[in-house]
Amino acid sequence: MFLLLIGITFYPRIIPNEVLSANSSLLLPLMYMLEFCCIFPLYMLFFRKLDDMGKGVLSLKQFLVFLLIIVLAQFAGGYIMDIRNKENWMVEQEVVKGAVFWINFILLVFVVPIYEEIVFRGCLLTALFSLFRGNVYIASLVTSALFAFMHTQYTDIRTLIILYIVSVILIVARILSKGLLMPILLHIAMNGIVLGVVFITL
User: Fold this and answer.
1) Is residue 132 within 8 Å of 138, Cβ to Cβ?
2) pLDDT digit string (tens) for 74-129?
3) Of all helices (H) and strands (E), which one includes residue 186?
4) Secondary structure (3-state) at 27
5) At 89, phi and psi to the nearest 5?
6) Where are the domains of the chain?
7) Measured between alpha carbons, how far is 185 from 193 in angstroms, rounded to an integer?
8) pTM, to two decimals
9) Please, are residues 202 and 90 in contact by the beta-carbon 8 Å criterion?
10) Which helix (DSSP H) or strand (DSSP E) does residue 69 occupy?
11) Which parts of 81-156 fold into alpha helices (H)?
12) Is the pLDDT of residue 73 over 80?
């Protein structure tokens, strides 16, 4: 599924520029929906009953603690590393109006986190556990590096470092909860908070 995500994510890079320009406002939401429609059914059919790939145990206390840590990593990390300028893709949202803007927002908050957690904290992390013979540290570091790398819309290395840290936190949440529900909900909450703040300040 990781390779499937790579294929869909990087496919727009081989589309001619004139085609992209004509459909640029719809490209991202279409890509998000395509990724979800390909990945989620595969998860439901083949992966959800595997060890630590189901819902797991959801603890409200743990959820709130992890969410606080993630929000601190996002905002305090940005302040400490002096990230003052918004990424280009965020600024470009200013020209997206009406229904397309809200479709983008809803997909980024409620849909993208589901399939990203399935792919990264689910399938990829599990595969790397096996590859590295249960070494949770190496598997977590490699998963987090690939998670940051796959966010091609970000160009500032400092932002990628924050994404790396967030991924490590989500991995800890996945391991402690023994499932994907907690990291999915944390990812949804994080995207809602961060994107809400970003779009309010645009």
Assistant:
1) yes
2) 999 888 888 777 766 666 666 666 788 889 899 999 999 999 999 999 999 999 99
3) helix 181-201
4) helix
5) -65, -30
6) 2-201
7) 12
8) 0.90
9) yes
10) helix 60-80
11) 88-91, 98-106, 112-116, 125-131, 136-150
12) yes
In the chain, the N- to C-terminal Cα span, in Å, equals: 34
Per-residue pLDDT tens for 28-48? 889 999 999 999 999 999 999
The Cα 193–Cα 200 span in angstroms is 11
* Residue in the block written with tokens 């980024």: 108
Quick one: the chain helix, strand, coil %, rounded to 5? 80, 0, 20
Encode pLDDT of 122-177 as tens digits.
Answer: 999 999 999 999 999 999 999 999 999 999 888 889 999 999 999 999 999 999 99
> What is the rounded CA–CA span in Å between residue 13 and residue 6?
12
**Which residues neighbour 126 within 8 Å (Cβ) at sequence distance 6 or greater?**
50, 52, 53
Q: Are 73 and 165 in contact (CB under 8 A)?
A: yes
Other Cβ atoms closer than 10 A to 158: 14
Q: Residue 87, Cα to own-chain centre: how many angstroms? A: 16
Structure tokens belonging to residue 171: 């991995």
SS3 21: helix
